[in-house]
Specification:
- The chain is α+β, with helices and mostly antiparallel strands.
- It folds into two domains: 109 residues, 5' to 3' exonuclease, C-terminal subdomain (DNA polymerase, domain 1, Orthogonal Bundle); 139 residues, DNA polymerase, Y-family, little finger domain (Dna Ligase, domain 1, 2-Layer Sandwich).
- The strands form two sheets. A four-stranded antiparallel β-sheet has the order 3-6-4-5. Strands 1-2 form a two-stranded parallel ribbon.
- The longest helix has 22 residues.
- The protein is globular.
- The two termini are 38 Å apart.
- The C terminus is likely disordered.
- The protein binds a DNA duplex through helix 4, helix 7, strand 3, strand 5 and strand 6.
Length: 277
DNA sequence: TCTGGGGTCCTAGGACCC
DNA sequence: TCTGGGGTCCTAGGACCC
């Protein structure tokens, strides 16, 4: 029975990790997640088949997956606070308030309908790195240098994932917290640091940062495709691959900081983000 | 509440094509 | 010269989640 499985999981977690765990059991993924939240801090809650709506309907809409502060406020202008009230709203009215896709999603969840299958090991759709700086970056040179460092970190992540991306996105947050993105899409995926850096510089130019100071920089790729597709083999490419391979080997032995672009080598202490995985 | 890092998905407008 | 309908892709931004 599901309860037996749940007890076994909770016992195993307590024994091996030493912390309590809560588990929800229900007929859909969403209800099970909600049940586990209601079971916290250290419990087990099963929603019996047939009593789903009795459990769901009195709860506030903010308990729904996909309802954050913005959607919650929008629903409140309709006089909707509970999931029961949401279930009673005509779909067309809901669409006008929260958009087509979100309306369909919320209407379904509010009725306890959630046909999503359990998917194990869904593969990533994008890979990115970003960093908020302890002190804003005040000069164009400082921004470029940090961006190069981020490209290097991204290249390491892509290398380890064995993937590259067709679309590169630059993210810039200014000191007033306004945030912009610039992206560009290529015919072929890229994953090597020099290619990422080329693209990042072009995006930085397009971002018109000007003299504004920068609080956060991020760089990432999506439209992922396996790296190292053999379509453009050449002597040059083979050499680049060998260099990347050698650098990766050194990193494995001496840490991520052991190989960095020459431009970043200086007498200044390097800013080191913690916990680079 | 002055806000870290890494993600997913959606929307809307525009370009471009048939 | 202006006009339809429909589709895909790209770009920028936003909401949301853990």
């Amino acid at each position: 029975a599901p309860e037996d499985v749940a007890h076994a999981i909770r016992g195993a977690i307590r024994e091996r990790v030493g912390i309590p765990a809560s588990i929800g059991i229900a007929s859909t993924k969403f209800l099970a997640k909600l049940a586990s939240e209601k079971a916290k801090p250290d419990g087990l809650l099963k929603i019996e088949h047939g009593s789903e709506l009795a459990f769901l309907h009195p709860l506030p809409v903010s308990d729904l997956w996909g309802v954050g502060e913005s959607t919650r406020a929008g629903l409140e202008t309709l006089g909707v606070r509970t999931i029961a009230e949401l279930a009673a709203v005509p779909l067309s009215l809901l669409e006008s308030r929260v958009g087509h896709a979100n309306a369909a999603h919320l209407a379904a969840l509010a009725r306890g309908f959630d046909p999503r299958p359990v998917v194990v090991d869904a593969s990533a759709r994008s890979i990115s790195v970003e960093e908020t700086y302890p002190a804003d970056l005040a000069t164009r040179e400082a921004v470029a240098e940090e961006l190069l460092r981020l490209c290097d970190r991204l290249a390491v992540r892509l290398r380890r994932a064995g993937t590259g991306g067709r679309t590169v996105t630059l993210k810039v947050r200014f000191s007033d917290f306004t945030t912009i993105t610039r992206s560009s899409t290529r015919e072929e995926a890229i994953w090597l640091r020099p290619d990422l850096w080329d693209e990042a510089r072009r995006l930085l130019d397009r971002a018109r940062v000007g003299g504004r100071s920068v609080r956060l920089l991020g760089i990432g790729v999506f439209h992922l495709a396996a790296a190292g597709e053999p379509e453009q083999l050449s002597m040059g490419q083979a050499t680049v691959d060998a260099v990347v391979e050698a650098a990766e080997e050194v990193r494995r032995r001496f840490g991520d900081d052991s190989v960095i672009p020459a431009r970043l080598v200086s007498g200044r202490p390097r800013h080191r983000p913690q916990g680079d995985r």
